[in-house]
Amino acid sequence: MLTLGGCDPEPARPAAQAAEEVAFATSRVRMVREQIATRGITDGRVLAAMARVPRHEFVPVGGRSLAYEDGPLPIGHGQTISQPYIVAFMTAALDPKPGDRVLEIGTGSGYQAAVLAGLVAEVYSIEIVAPLAQRAEADLQRLGYGNVKVRAGDGYRGWPEAAPFDAIIVTCAPEHVPQALVNQLKAGGRMMVPVGPTDGVQELYLLRKRPGGLETRAVLPVRFVPMVTKGPPG
What we know:
Elements: H1 12-36, H2 44-52, E1 73-76, E2 79-81, H3 84-94, E3 101-105, H4 111-117, E4 122-127, H5 130-142, E5 148-152, E6 165-170, H6 179-183, E7 185-195, E8 202-210, E9 213-222
Parallel strand pairs: 3-4, 3-6, 4-5, 6-7
Antiparallel strand pairs: 1-2, 7-8, 8-9
């Protein structure tokens, strides 16, 4: 009499997961090579960070097959994870230093914060949509980004108790630069911020805080989701 053993699918699962991670890693290297480096991003630290951070972990499960494509993706609540090139461009333009403390406005998925986490000392990130803030915080903790602090709050008001910051990056578009953020920037600090109306032309600006005021330079036309506030914009 022939006795057949039970069929247990569990042993195959780790192998399938490992194969999937290899495929994602290959796609990530291709993304950096074809979407970012060929467009003029040459900062080796930024390229290495983009090749290291698992973007698919910050994308809802149903969209993970598209995680390394050349474009933004929806993450729920009317928000998106930015195009990889834009993340790399803004990160490189911000010129992050290993000792920097950086404020991010618009946590979203947490992906931009994860990229910065490997380049600076501390990242403080604010997200006005509480469920997104909670999900991003959980994902960042799960993936080991211990130098990122996330909270749900109004980005127009910044994070005054943690200020001043060496750099500020804004990943949603206000119609003007919030004065509270300028106040929380160190002397000599840098800010990357897209500015403009939701239905019109937006420009990505690089700002530097000088003794005589803000030095402002438009660096790229862009299209970001609007920056919203719970009260009168600061």
